[in-house]
Amino acid sequence: MNTKRFILPENEIPREWYNIQADMVNKPLPPIHPATRQPLKAEDLYPIFCKACADQELNRSDRFIPIPDEVLEKYSYYRCTPLVRAYGLEKALDTPAHIYFKNESVNPLGSHKLNSAIAQAYYAKQEGVTNLTTETGAGQWGAAMSYACKIFGIEAAVYMVKISYEQKPYRRSIMQTFGAQVTPSPSMSTKAGRKILTENPMHQGSLGTAISEAVELAMNTPGCKYVLGSVLNHVCLHQTVIGLEAEKQMEMAGEYPDTVIACFGGGSNFCGLAMPFMRHKILEGRKTRFIAAEPASCPKLTKGVFGYDFGDEAGYTPLLAMFTLGHTFRPANIHAGGLRYHGSGSIVAQLLRDGLMEAVDIKQNDSFKAGVLFAQTEGIIPAPESCHAIAATINEALRCKEAGESKTILFNLSGHGLVDMSAYNSYLAGDLVDAAVPDADIARYLKESGITE
Amino acid sequence: MNTKRFILPENEIPREWYNIQADMVNKPLPPIHPATRQPLKAEDLYPIFCKACADQELNRSDRFIPIPDEVLEKYSYYRCTPLVRAYGLEKALDTPAHIYFKNESVNPLGSHKLNSAIAQAYYAKQEGVTNLTTETGAGQWGAAMSYACKIFGIEAAVYMVKISYEQKPYRRSIMQTFGAQVTPSPSMSTKAGRKILTENPMHQGSLGTAISEAVELAMNTPGCKYVLGSVLNHVCLHQTVIGLEAEKQMEMAGEYPDTVIACFGGGSNFCGLAMPFMRHKILEGRKTRFIAAEPASCPKLTKGVFGYDFGDEAGYTPLLAMFTLGHTFRPANIHAGGLRYHGSGSIVAQLLRDGLMEAVDIKQNDSFKAGVLFAQTEGIIPAPESCHAIAATINEALRCKEAGESKTILFNLSGHGLVDMSAYNSYLAGDLVDAAVPDADIARYLKESGITE
Fold first, then answer.
1. B365 is in which domain, residue-wise?
2. I want to staple A125 with a disulfide (CB 3.0 to 4.6 A). Which of A75, A152, A440, B415 is the partner?
């Protein structure tokens, strides 16, 4: 019997995160102050973020950053996650490609998000923070953060994108089971929310909107800090446990990936899997391809422009170097809520500019078609976000079949879709729209956001 | 760092199931024909069940039964499942007890049910069966069976208990994603269903009702057999992979359980975990306690009587030796749909009569209280069924604390509750009733069902 799942023992959980900033030839551009246009220092971020996270955000010198013991102990509740050979999917595609996936869905909260939530809650506790605020799209990050706060004895307030709050009531219940306070965003509880609702009472929310509300609450509440589940460098850093484990597990399988694929919202699961392998491309010239799979309705990497933009809709955050569709971009109500964000993180933006990675966009129906095939062959119902990575993987595997090439493909199964069955329901009923965004709309949003290439 | 999760490598997946019938001193009473009162032979079961399963059902001689290679290959998609030390829960309870759980919730369909679904679908395929029918309560079994049918190329028709069909629409969607046809039961599609609906149009369904419908469809459809997810000996047999793994894993942890606990519906997850340990009690006189945790609203083991009864509401099945509340018993609409069944399997019935195991009943609110504490300390939201095992475990752990005893408790986390968040919602809102069943009602149902002690 061929090995299906490659499992590392508990003592092989990585002891350090991998900080690609140290190895990048062209460093990611720093965040800058909107008024002065001066690069920000870590201290400038302390009022909003935990200090440890702010320091990690701008750390360009340490290649490896030790994982604190208490974080490791919590990682041991679910890590290492399995690396799985997708024999069932390969057979259904009749492809000579070898397909592997890193199964972050076995994680108790259902996605990779817990990897950073635990770290951020730990640092907050260390620094005497009593309350954390955050935003969540599909609810994966919010669920992870709610649990992480509970185990470290911190109060959590989560702004949940309104369309997801309505589409995914059960993710909201998960957060509430962990004791978090959950508010649909835009809400009337913040200035930013009130402004948005006044201008557009039917606003369905977006990650950009929810970030504005969470940041505003943190700025106005003593003992309260803000945490983010993607985009930022320190979040991507925490996620590198995924790729560091996968590296060892691919070695157990006796292979090295030719292609590494992950879905792309802000970059957390993509960076988590890809960066440890990217290191070998940068340092040793490995020819690995890296593919970020984004939704056709929110195509910042394939159709956005590179520039400085706000991370949130209201413009509270520093300006970040991004590929962006404009911070006012209002994505269609696709079910992959975690991918409905206008910009990429600065690390990914730089890697894309430098030609070290690629991006593809996937239509909503194609993503679910891929997800159903994966479920029926591998027995795991993938999160709508992860379906994008699967669709991109299937495209590559079919290309291998045509070309008669036996490539090794590794993708990230960032989460399961058991709390997203209403989306599958709609797909099976033929009710989903593809929601690709017209070029003219992108141009309009970019102009509105003041972005020029 | 203390080890949290004990993981076996893939080559340690058990190669054989453990058949406790071979070791029982007092054998379970055989199924009998309702009219002739004669014990049934395996051949008598062939018209409804797959032959291999019928043979296993009555096999009292082979202690171990080899697991076919193709079943092992499918087991490798998710097994071995982790044995976990519940440090978080222990700390919250401040108990000297050591608490372990076997985590069957990491299984891709979310519960232990897949262990038997794969085996039954495999045998059906081997025997040229093209269609399988079954019943499902909460939907765990139906989801597992739908997937198992899909991977072996068999059509699946699932009768889902109506109250669960309505309360748990997402489990229904999971089955449909795997291509199964799902019908709420009682339905107008069978004689049994029409009779029940005519007599009681508001009938909310029960496992007994759904079994009648599924059996009727199998009897009237060429190429179609019936499969069951619990109660029967061969189902319990397939589930013993749980306990066989747990045995090795407890050895890795350097402990042996003083107490083994599982929730109890028909007996599948209980037998799966307990029987391999029960063997050492029978053969070597180990003092292990075995506790089945059933809902106060469906207390067949604690308040039912031992006797021969039908397995289904309509009386299509053979008479089975059971602890039963009467086959007409109509359980309250608790959220633990998988525990809403009137009788125990024959093996458990005999073990209980022989004093080799115990049973406790748990009220609905107590089960969810335990489930929330477990979620907040261990990070996994348990299935409403599994919450009963957790509540019983907590009771034992608190007893240890009072007595100052450091016992080792092992329980089965049979499934996760991510598709049951509406139940948690109701619990958090204070909307759940305890629904313990009055003794007078039990007496009435027993009389109606023609059961005497």
1. 69-109+241-448
2. A152
